[in-house]
Amino acid sequence: MNNVKTSKSIVNPIVRKDLKVISRSMKFSWGLFAYEAILALIFLFIMLTIRSVGSYSGIRSNTDVYEAYISFFLVIGIAQLIMISLIIPIITASSISGERERQTLDVMLTTTTSAPAIIIGKVSSAVFRVMIFVVASVPLMAISFIMGGLSWLMLLEYTVLAFVYAIMAGSIGTFCSSVCRKSIPAIIMSYVIYGTIYGITYVPLLLVAILGDIDDAVWSFLPLAFNPVQSFIVFFYGRMTGESLYEEIYSYGTNNNPIFEFFGSTTVWLIISVILQLGIAAFFIWMASLRLKPRNK
User: How far apart are CA 211 and CA 16, in angstroms?
Assistant: First the structure.
């Protein structure tokens, strides 16, 4: 009995409560069904496209057909990221504001659970729900690995990147929910912050493109390490072509700086990007915790 009580105490109470609600909710089950149905339609569309292109171009070689199956991973992976971007703000928008609307936030704050633990619990439950969607799509994406010859390590890397992206997006959505008293404004605010992070990191690159100084171009790519969208672009390009996206770009500069070569590696770029995204998530979790203090409720 002592071991059972100890194991339960390890789990965040917010996560445990939300998981109980999810397990009994038909709404979540129907949402998962709709998610898989959309991916299945995309799957059928790709199959028909491959068949049509093969018939039109006269492809008969099994090698050519198998290589075409690689597109499953790319298209379904991108479609999944788009849906995750749309789902997470909706899930997290009511994480704190919903408690306010149900007038249960005051009760939650009077418990022994601290404000950071509440925020981490809300983010964790949102990430858990999103990762259920990601894991459920693995059988469809696995076709690219079974028939297309891709490495299973790529699927693991994609899952890790999706997990980190879910943490970052979930922390932003939870922060917005702690700031806004209603769910709809929290959703809008989440999308605004997403757009700001995604857009502002491209500003240095656009300035360099306008000024036309190629030596500064390599530096203008560094802020993109904060951008999860760019991380997936680097991942898909590097892992599916076997070449680094930045190596050729960096080669145009006359500054042969070893830092450029270091950042040119796909693996190094992804590791740095993951660390920076987790840093952004930690910042928004900290800010949400400050907002959740009793005087700010």
Answer: 54
183-218 as b/e: b if 16+ CB within 10 A? beebbebbeebbeebbeebbebbeebeeeeeeeebb
- What pTM does this model have? 0.80
Per-residue 3-state assignment (H helix, E strand, C coil) for 193-244: HHHHHHHHCCHHHHHHHHHCCHHHHHHHCHHHHHCHHHHHHHHHHHHHHCCC
Measured in degrees and rounded to the nearest 5, phi and psi for residue 257 equal: -90, 130
DSSP code of residue 293: S
- In sequence order, which residues have a C-beta less than 8 Å from that of residue 192 and are 6 or more positions away? none
Q: Which residue is it, tokens 């050729």?
A: 248
| pLDDT tens, residue by residue, 43-95 | 788 777 766 665 555 544 445 555 666 777 777 788 888 878 888 888 887 77
Distance, CA of 256 to CA of 29 (rounded, Å): 54
Q: What is the tens place of the pLDDT at every residue in 107-123?
A: 777 777 777 888 888 88
230, burial (CB in 10 Å: exposed 0-12, middle 13-18, buried 19+): buried
Helix (H) or strand (E) run with residue 139 in it:
helix 138-146
How distant, in Å, are the alpha carbons of 65, 72, 244, 248 from that of 53? 10, 15, 29, 31
Average pLDDT over residues 133-161: 77
Round to whole Å and give the CA distance between 209 and 200.
Answer: 15
Across 73-103, b (16+ Cβ under 10 Å) vs e yields bebbbebbbebbbebbbebbbbbbbbbbeee
